[in-house]
Specification:
- The complex is a heterodimer of chains A (529) and B (333).
- Chain A folds into four domains: 1-7 and 19-37 and 65-90 and 108-116 and 195-277, 3-Layer(aba) Sandwich (Rossmann fold), CATH 3.40.50.300; 127-194, no CATH class; 292-365 and 450-528, 3-Layer(aba) Sandwich (Rossmann fold); 383-449, no CATH class.
- Chain A is 33% helix and 23% strand.
- Chain A has 18 helices and 22 strands.
- In chain A, α5 (151-165) packs across α6 (180-192) and α15 (434-446) packs parallel to α16 (464-479).
- Chain A starts with 19 loop residues before the first helix and ends with a helix.
- Chain B is mainly alpha-helical and 333 residues long.
- Chain B is built from 15 helices and two strands.
- In chain B, strands 1-2 form a two-stranded antiparallel sheet.
- In chain B, β1 and β2 (167-171) form a beta hairpin.
- In chain B, α4 crosses α11 (214-240).
- Residues 326-333 of chain B have low confidence and may be disordered.
- The chains are: A alpha/beta (529), B mainly alpha (333).
- The A-B interface holds A 86-88, 108-110, 113, 119, 121, 123-131, 134, 138-149, 170, 172-174, 177 and B 3, 6-7, 187, 189-196, 198-199, 202-203, 205-207, 209-213, 216, 265, 269-270, 333.
- Chain B: The chain crosses the membrane at residues 12-35, 41-61, 92-112, 119-138, 170-189, 210-235, 255-286, 298-319.
- Chain B: GO terms for molecular function: transmembrane transporter activity.
- Chain B: It comes from Ensifer adhaerens.
- Chain B: It is a multi-pass membrane protein.
């Protein structure tokens, strides 16, 4: 592929990367040993956002045709950094951007596009109401002065670009008719129009399933092989390692280093990103002596899940994993009363229950932290305290009205308990980081005094560093006697944090594992097979 | 064909509703189903259609404008005065003056929205009050009847007596309306600027990242509506043969309802000229039919409101959801 060969023959990959000496050596090799002239070099990039330094003297480079990964926790400066080259943000004075033989002090979006720099934004920056063809060939309608629109040419450009990716879509349909994975493809196709030399991809796999991700990674490899340099931002370290030839790590707005991917491990990247060491250990314990809180028998919903039977005991954390679309979320929503089962029984504390809505479920002591926290679970513009008490307003009533005093006390209690870092209780929830938002979302449900807490993909959009904190909370909650169902498509999460792991595939439970007696690789093998 | 019904669901639904209403009305009343009445409808709806296509451009670009109808009244007065200064003028000078004044008033809205970052509904409610207040203050509510002759003379471009004795007439307002409709259609579907307007309305941040000039988009959208409001104002003065300061007051909501009915989305990025024209016509047909049926005019608003709700529900909801028993498996993606 496009990766330089200078270190490829150096010992065996991974030889001594775990220790500090090896890493420094490789670091130097990677940054100084490139024989090819870089396509892009950034020097002395500084940026300030509202008094906060988002980037501090960052310098890095990208070689022609390489797959380069940008890693770091959120807030580390990845997003500001990738906005510099396409000209969306302007760095502070003194910066220089050397791109393909020319030096700029800053870019403009128009220059960047003219010179073959394309970006696939995390939010895709697509136009859902416009047709697929227009989205892909959008460049043809740019320009200051009105020109006639050539729909035929647009359609041709779009079809060609999709063909290069090996995808067929109806280019005349509005984009909103397509699901997120196909929109991602459209965004990539758009980047390929106009002879891209350098493509930035900001979290391209965040909302894709495993097979869609695999397909995307194939596309990235193909681009790289065709000589297009790809700068890839991702939270999923496994795919970072799989796809990239070099990894640039940022922390707190400053460059940590540039490392070759060969021989790098996930835990090493995590250490570099956070500056802390994490050693994950299986937390599983036996809870067989505890009473059963939830017992499900033969639960089915046609087309979604079939004949599901499971039990969760007091203090037990039951992990459910499986690929996206395995019926996990539908199962969770059924346990939470949002969907009604077609067959089967749900028993809570030994008594059969029928929920006609999630209000019944909340009353019965079930809490559900939804998968899509950002859009479903929290009301972003509202304050931290209002979000926290939304499901437990009954507790802060004094007389007939809501009491601000009670609210403040309740909120303060949970914020201390869960170690949430906030400014003021009245600040909007959107001011918090992903990890802290997730803590508020958990607190919101804990405030309803549940017996059973269902966590659906609790670490989506949460940084590696903050993930551990979330699971510490989950473990503490289990120790207080809460029964927990932990749903995640990341097998390691359930492996390390649950007492038992169920594997769901195509709506059925196809495997049950005890993490103390099974290796992670064994479960991963079964799930990703 | 299937693709057309899918991408133009609103227009198809509107046509269906119009067809149903026309069928009902042609049985319920004696005079509805005549070409004469159809052309009458077109003549009376011209001003609203001109306003509607103007407003469509603003909605497509993600804005909203409450002030255009009052702005049209201001233009009527301004044009009447300016025509007095130049000693009468004619249709060409009249349209140029009215159009330019309209563009200026639209540009004020764009300036407030772009330069001072006031959201469009607030900005235009303010200018609505300011324009109307100034108009009433300076005119003291007095109408102008003393208009140039060319403006008040009815211009019939084509007429033909039908066998049943009714007249088919195409008047100047219909011609102006047709030109405005075609020009707007060309602007928003056939020029790059128009597609930029759609893109900007659909996803402003996405458009900005492409380097689209956001300020220009606001000025073009509100300027175009201003132009249409100016032209519409002059045509309305011609049609009514007088200039009354509060004649158009309240028209903004009727037009807005018709445009939204026609499938334009208040969030921006969606809407078509065809849908917009059909939306205005649907309301006009309903009112006309009720009139012919002898329904009290006091009931009009109520019935029109109900029609808007029904039509919007129809166009927003898939048939399968409304009628679950006709749904076919696998019909939906």
């Amino acid at each position: 592929m496009g990766s330089p060969g200078c270190w490829a023959g150096f010992g065996r990959p991974g030889m001594s990367l775990q220790n500090g000496i090896g890493h420094t050596f490789m670091h130097q090799l990677a940054t100084t040993g490139g024989s090819e002239k870089p396509l892009l070099s950034l020097h002395d990039i500084n940026m300030t956002f509202g008094g906060v330094k988002a980037l501090r003297n960052v310098s890095c480079d990208v070689r022609p045709g390489e797959a380069h990964c940008l890693a770091g926790e959120s807030g580390c400066g990845k997003s500001p950094l990738i906005k510099i080259t396409p000209g969306v943000s302007r760095p502070a004075d003194g910066a220089s951007i050397e791109y393909d033989g020319e030096t700029y002090s800053h870019m403009s979006p128009v220059t960047a596009q003219d010179r073959g720099i394309q970006v696939i934004w995390q939010d895709l920056a697509l136009f859902p109401e416009m047709s697929v063809a227009e989205n892909i060939a959008f460049q043809t309608v740019l320009g200051r002065w009105p020109k006639p629109v050539d729909y035929g040419r647009m359609r041709k450009i779009a079809t060609d670009a999709l063909e290069r990716l090996g995808i067929t879509l109806d280019v005349d349909l509005p984009l909103k008719e397509y699901a997120i994975a196909q929109r991602q493809i459209v965004a990539i196709a758009r980047a390929l129009v106009g002879e891209a030399k350098l493509v930035f991809m900001d979290e391209p796999t965040a909302s894709l399933t495993q097979s869609e991700t695999d397909h995307l990674l194939d596309i990235v490899r193909g681009l790289s092989a065709a000589g297009v340099a790809v700068v890839f931002v991702s939270h999923r370290l496994a795919e970072v390692l799989e796809i990239s030839s070099r990894i640039t790590v940022l922390r707190d707005g400053a460059l940590v280093g540039v490392y070759p991917a060969a021989g790098m491990t996930q835990s090493r990247i995590t250490e570099l990103m956070t500056g802390k060491t994490f050693d994950q250990q299986v937390r599983a314990k036996s809870r067989q002596d505890q009473p059963v809180v939830l017992e499900v028998k033969g639960l089915s919903r046609p087309g979604q899940f079939d004949d599901i039977s499971l039990t969760v005991r007091r203090g037990e954390t039951l992990g459910i994993t499986g690929l996206l679309g395995a019926g996990r979320t539908e199962l969770a929503q059924t346990l939470f009363g949002m969907l009604q089962p077609a067959a089967g029984t749900i028993m809570l504390d030994g008594k059969p229950v029928r929920f006609s809505s999630n209000r019944d479920a909340i009353k019965a002591g079930v809490a559900y932290l939804s998968e899509d926290r950002l859009s479903l679970g929290l009301i972003q513009p509202q304050s931290i305290s209002d979000n926290l008490v939304i499901s437990s307003l009954g507790k802060i009533v004094s007389g007939r009205f809501l009491s601000d005093e009670r609210k403040r006390k309740l909120v303060a209690g949970w914020i201390t308990d869960l170690g949430v870092k906030i400014g003021l209780q009245g600040d909007a929830i959107s001011t918090l980081s992903g990890g802290n938002q997730q803590r508020i979302a958990i607190a919101k449900w804990l405030a309803t005094d549940p017996k059973l807490l269902i966590l659906d993909a609790p670490t989506v959009g949460v940084d590696v560093g903050a993930r551990a904190g979330i699971f510490d909370i989950v473990a503490k909650l289990a120790d207080t006697g809460l029964a927990i169902i932990l749903i995640s498509d990341e097998v390691p999460e359930v492996y390390f944090n649950a007492d038992r792991v169920l594997h769901m595939a195509q709506g059925r439970i196809v495997g049950s594992y005890d993490p103390r007696s099974v290796s992670l690789a064994e479960i991963e093998g079964a799930v990703y097979a | 064909m299937r693709s057309f019904t899918r991408t133009h669901a609103t227009e198809v639904a509107l046509l269906a509703v119009i067809a149903v209403i026309c069928t009902v009305l042609s049985f319920a009343t004696a005079n509805f189903f005549s070409l004469g009445n159809a052309f009458d409808l077109l003549n009376t709806s011209s001003v609203n259609i001109i306003f509607a296509v103007g407003l469509l451009v603003v909605l497509v670009a993600g804005g909203i404008d409450i002030s255009f109808a009052v702005a049209a009244s201001v233009v009527q007065y301004g044009t009447a005065i300016a025509l007095g200064w130049i000693g009468g003028g004619g249709w060409v000078s009249g349209l140029v003056i009215a159009g330019s004044l309209g563009i200026c008033l639209g540009a004020i809205n764009a300036l407030l929205i772009h330069r001072f970052r006031i959201i469009s509904i607030v900005a235009t409610i303010s200018t609505f009050n300011i324009y109307f207040g100034l108009l009433m203050f300076f005119t003291k509510g007095v109408s102008i009847y003393d208009l140039p002759e060319w403006l008040t003379d009815r211009v019939v471009l084509f007429e033909h007596e039908m066998a049943d004795g009714s007249w088919i007439e195409i008047t100047l307002p219909v011609l102006v309306m047709a030109l405005c409709v075609i020009a707007t259609w060309v602007l928003i579907t056939r020029t790059t600027t128009g597609r930029q307007l759609y893109a900007f309305g659909d996803n402003p941040e996405g458009a900005r990242r492409f380097g689209i000039n956001i300020g220009a988009m606001q000025f073009i959208a509100f300027g175009w509506l201003g132009l249409m409001a100016g032209i519409g104002g002059l045509v309305q003065a011609h049609y009514a043969q007088e200039v009354v300061p509060n004649a158009l007051y309240g028209r903004e909501l009727d037009v807005l309802a018709a445009v939204v009915l026609g499938g334009a989305r208040l969030g921006g990025g969606k809407g078509s000229v065809l849908g917009c024209v059909l939306g205005v016509l649907l309301i006009a047909i309903t009112q006309n039919g009720l009139n012919l049926m002898g329904v009290s005019p006091f009931a009009f608003k109520m019935i029109v409101g109900a029609i808007i709700l029904i039509a919007i529900t129809l166009s927003n909801t898939s048939i399968e959801r409304l009628l679950p028993f006709v749904s076919q498996k696998g019909a939906r993606r």
